[in-house]
Amino acid sequence: MTTATVVGAGPNGLAAAAALARAGLEVTVLEAADEIGGGTRSGEATVPGLLHDHCSAVHPMAVGSSFLNRLGLDRHGLRWAWPEIDCAHPLDSGGAGVLHRSVTGTAADLGADGTLWRRLFEGPSAAFGTVGDAVMGPLLRPPRHPVRLARFGVPALAPASLLAKAFRTEEGRALWGGVAAHAFHPLERPLTASVGLGIVTAGHHYGWPVAVGGSRRITDALAAVVREHGGKIETGVRVRSPADLPRTDVTLWDLTPTALAAILGDLLPPRIARAYRRYRYGPAAFKVDFAVEGGIPWRAEAARRAGTVHVGGSYAEVAATERDIYAGRMPQRPFVLVGQQYLADPSRSTGDLHPVWSYAHVPNGYTGDATAAITAQIERFAPGFRDRVVATTVRTTAEFAEYNPNYVGGDIMTGTTNAPRLLFGPRPTLQPYDTGVEGHYLCSAATPPGAGAHGMCGAHAAARALRRLRG
């Protein structure tokens, strides 16, 4: 029987293992940590009984992942739940930009910007089920539906700042800027619109759901598929060199390019080794989990019903903070993402005590404490928030890197989202999963389509490995 080893049991490693096991290979997954899941883990972080997601929390890309949907993960307990409102972006005026699952509903709330919102998202979101696979893979390949993809792809080539200029209301600009800021990249750079367009388009098609019982349920379901098809998963096994691997026909690596370069060393072709060693990491996340009595008292009513709240003020303020963190400067008022997953999944709460998930965008390797800045930003748009906080737990950039070594310097995107990476992956090539070493493939979030719990990086790498095995 053909054998495969997968190093790393994050969502991409598990997805790769599931694909290979379903294809009939004898698969072994090796995970250095004591617990599988990478960024898709959950647990009690503040007080007993409250369930917090450790990193990945809201899943518009995962719920629409064609690969995950083919696996029948519902058979293994994965269920999705949606909040009433996907996302809100409150402003100092007391108003907010509001993202509904419905394009029509979002456009109606945006007033003068409603027509623009419909023009940008109505057609692409309706067609996302058709073109989603093209978006969720290497961009430099012939598309199956070129005309439909062009309607999505042409605006994606632009800087997010260029699209922001087309909005007439502060609510519309801020809502767009907050979503585009998920790129962790200056919004004036080329292709930064692609991240915002992808998230919004997928969200309008599938919504912004959470996994009932925490993001760990995605991990559990993927692991169940691996084992269902005869695969083995071993934890506490760290691979430091090829000598640590069992004899195997193919090896897939759910690691960063720099980590893989350190392991494979001189086995890598020199040009690929240089690219992997020079791979650039981007800004980081500083996370604070809160236990909040009665929930957050947002001034904007929509924010009280939103699963995700973007806390950053106006578009201009968000754009300035993203420039600062990319340049290594910590802003006084950072851009903060707040997750209220309990609104969709009440099982995460205990009575009127609720888990609130948040992180700020900070410079890579930031050594300060952003807890006060995050708390102040939430208080700014929700006066009285501090008085409701019962407990907090902090994860610094260094602790993020310890929790998951793929998060170098606290970079939860596994690499800077500049134009070369968005187009090619970790190096200039049409085969981003190939390492140049026979039988070895890279399947981490450093490869297309990038970060998220969608598993598509692992699925594409496994497909590449299977094609090569079959000649």
TrEMBL record:
<dbReference type="InterPro" id="IPR036188">
    <property type="entry name" value="FAD/NAD-bd_sf"/>
</dbReference>
<protein>
    <submittedName>
        <fullName>NAD(P)/FAD-dependent oxidoreductase</fullName>
    </submittedName>
</protein>
<dbReference type="Pfam" id="PF13450">
    <property type="entry name" value="NAD_binding_8"/>
</dbReference>
